[in-house]
What we know:
Elements: H1 7-10, H2 15-52, H3 60-95, E1 116-120, H4 133-140, E2 143-144, H5 145-151, E3 158-159, H6 161-180, E4 184-186, E5 191-193, H7 194-200, E6 211-212, E7 227-229, H8 233-238, E8 245-247, E9 253-262, E10 281-291, H9 296-314, E11 318-322, E12 334-342, E13 347-356, H10 360-365, E14 368-370, E15 377-378, E16 380-388, H11 389-399, E17 407-408, E18 422-423
Parallel strand pairs: 4-9, 8-14
Antiparallel strand pairs: 1-11, 2-3, 5-7, 6-7, 9-10, 10-16, 11-12, 12-13, 13-16, 14-15, 17-18
Helix pairs in contact: 2-3, 6-11
Amino acid sequence: MLDPLKMxxxxxxxxxxxxxxxxxxxxxxxxxxxxxxxxxxxxxRNTASQGMAKLDKKSAEFTATREQMKTLGDRIKAGESELxxxxxxxxxxxxxxxxAPHASVPDGTGEADNxxxxxxxxxxxxxxxxxAHWDIGERLGILDFxxxxxxxxxxxxxxxxxxxxxxxxxxxxxxxxxxxHGYEEVWPPAIVxxxxxxxxGQLPKFEEDLFRLAIPTGPDxxxxxxxxxxxxxxxxxxxxxxxxxxxxDSLPRHYTAYTPCFxxxxxxxxxxxxGLIRQHQFDKVELVKLVKPEHSYAELETLLGDxxxxxxxxxxxxxxxxxxxxxxxxxxAKTYDLEVWLPGQDxxxxxxxxxxxxxxxxxxxxxxFKSGTEKPRPLxxxxxxxxxxGRTLVAILEQYQQADxxxxxxxxxxxxxxxxxxxxxxx
Length: 427
């Protein structure tokens, strides 16, 4: 939930956000005005009550004061009911307002305004026209789109042979790499509660993009216990500490986790319908940090480096861009995107987002820390894909493709594939 003190900064995100902020401010102004009126009525009732104690209970003045007290009580009761409704309405608006961009985030209106921070490696060159990964995968017999659709529906894919083997290798490679650099590995459930999704900012805004499980309802049903397939391990790992107060000495906490991820992609209708780029089910290794506020931007830089280390170890050419104010994700205050080069599509595509959410998620999930006798306060959370498995597979197929139709396995993965050096067409 956005700190109300940051409302002016969030206006940098654009007109739609400005309209939401305006609506919240109108409700909050009514709430504060009503609270002041109630404070006055309660003071008036207290004064009347004190005066009433000195009156003769048989006097007309006592009767009049008693009626005044009743009227005040009715007005206070009605006001408190309205105040509760306004507080709920205010919180509803707040839950739909995104995080404020950090001062270092460039202004912009969309993806075209994201500046390139740096580039690593060089674009691979080919003496033939490079193919897209879906053609490579089908020729090699390792990407079975028809079987995926037959079993589930479109945008589900069966990985066979070399693709399955590479996927398993990538998961182990990434987890080993991150744990070697200080991350604690966790293996969380793939199913999450509504409360957890709200805590990290996926709800209420992105409910249409989630797969909700069918669950029984009734008069005692608590919506916070609604269950969903997780869209990203960010949800589970961040919420490891939902409703907790951590000791300052236990920070920072760095976690890594592999999970399958599930997204309905309702907001991406018609986009990337071919291949593995935008699937309903995919895999990621995720990085999550819980840190003291004064350290979070230094931690963002090291988080970026940890994600880059994966691609560098695989020898994949990529670039890093800084997202502009209008292109930031809902919960992020600052984000770096890693975009890997896909020669078969002649474009860069996002393979990891590394974000600092500041205290936005911690406020929603009630994750705080304290030092000594100080009052607990929200910590800062960070998250980065370390990295998306399916898109890494795509990049390997396209950057390591050979003229004979085979694909070379990056040397870093060979210890995880039993020494497999090349995926070749079936004879």
